[in-house]
Amino acid sequence: MVLKDDDVYAFGSNVSGCLGLGDTHSTLVPEKVVQLCRKGIIGFAYGGGPHVVAFSSRGEVFAWGHNGYNELANGSTAQGCFPMKVEGVIASKVVVEVTCGSHHTVALTNEGEVYSWGQNKCGQIGSGVNSNQWSPRRVNSSIGGKFIIGIACGQMSSIAVTNNGEVYGWGYNGNGQLGIGNNVNQLNPCRVMALSNTVIVKVVCGLSHTLALSDEGKVYGWGSSSYGQLAMPIRNNNVFTPEQIVDSIGRVVDIAASHYNHVSACAAQNSTVYMWGQLKGQSVTTAMATPFSSLHEVFACFGSPAITYKPMTVSWDQSTKVEETLKNAFNDQSTSDLVIRVENKDIYVHRTVLKIRCQHFRSMFSEHWQECNQDIIEIDQFTYPVYKAFLRYLYTDEVDMAPEQALELMELASAYCEDTLKRLCERLIRKGIDVENAALLYSTAIGYRAKELEEFCFRFSLNHMTAVVQSKGFASLDATTVKNFIERAAKAGAFRT
């Protein structure tokens, strides 16, 4: 556990000294891991030995625990009961992500470089040979020079995603978990060519299967399907090339798997969490909707063993009661002292809350506006659903509406100078982008001067150029926007042969 004061504690089973407390004695009482305190630790990964790897906000890497296969990158095979900084070439790099297989580690730097070490009998280090790697080594072959944005490890395999959506795999491939069309182990990274026309933004690995998420919210799976972990009706088969799965649940925004088990999970755009695979010993071959609000709950309740697929953030906010009270006060006629009427529908609010939360209302109620002394204020510039969503945001800090409506809400946010709300709208729109609305969203982002959203929409359109330029949304653009878009796409290399 990493506390807010930057102290680190550990408790539980202490096999191979994996708690980092200096011995192998298990404990039910949290004990301080002195070597990690005040180091700015922000992430962990774990192997099957187990060995544990942590990285800090400064990009430093620490490792401890099992070391029979050089997992700790310290030049020996003696287990380490204390966290030690990983030295060598990686010490001068800023690591932003780490992931582990059973006995190997892969690290990603802020420069998009990949380093690996540990067990290598199946080529999971990507070094071109199958001897264990006792110190961090950069993975260069095939992916050298490409900017990597995501990494994942299966039991004895490794996967990487580039910033332009390409996927590469290396290591053990007995179940086809590398997605390259065969079951031959690979000592160097190989591109997953079946996804060459798809832009992948995230990959995760189970013990013997792989899942990938595209920028269009589609999920692809490959590898072992023996426990239903690929959500395919036919079990006991290996899938050697990526196939789209769970397409019936709509757009997916996140995926999860762990190299410790055969569980798969995802979160749909409507916030529903789905799961499939080996769930408490039962094989489930179709995506099952759950009552959970978090992917972590799938692994806590149905994973065997029950291990989180990534570090989990838990917080206790002492102001929760105040927040809940404010949320409940929205549109409460019994406590309201002001009515805002939109399209002949009333929304019940509180002057003080609006003044505290929004500069627009602070000016309205503090200066000599006509509305200052009115009990009912009528709004005709925006629709009822959008204005109600805006007022609810002032009470809750949350936006709950369809991505299509977020455009109008973003216009309101711009008009009222609500930059935080504007950013929330941008996130909603990002989740809802597709080839039909990408061009229109791009044009709208330009109009609202939303630079990050504009760049995101342009990159999405660039990745799906043919479909986007044939869409109705693109056809509705004005001539100037079309001309500027084409010129910009040309500079980005969209029309090179």
UniProtKB/TrEMBL annotation:
Transmembrane segments: none annotated. Gene3D superfamilies: Potassium Channel Kv1.1, Chain A, Regulator of chromosome condensation 1/beta-lactamase-inhibitor protein II. The keyword Cell cycle does not apply. It comes from the Eukaryota. Keywords: Repeat. This is BTB domain-containing protein. Pfam families: BTB (PF00651), RCC1 (PF00415), RCC1_2 (PF13540). Residues 336-403 form the BTB domain. InterPro entries: BTB/POZ_dom, RCC1/BLIP-II, Reg_chr_condens, Signaling_Regulatory_Domain, SKP1/BTB/POZ_sf. RCC repeats lie at residues 6-58, 59-111, 112-164, 165-216, 217-268. SMART domains: BTB. CDD domains: BACK_RCBTB1_2, BTB_POZ_RCBTB1_2.
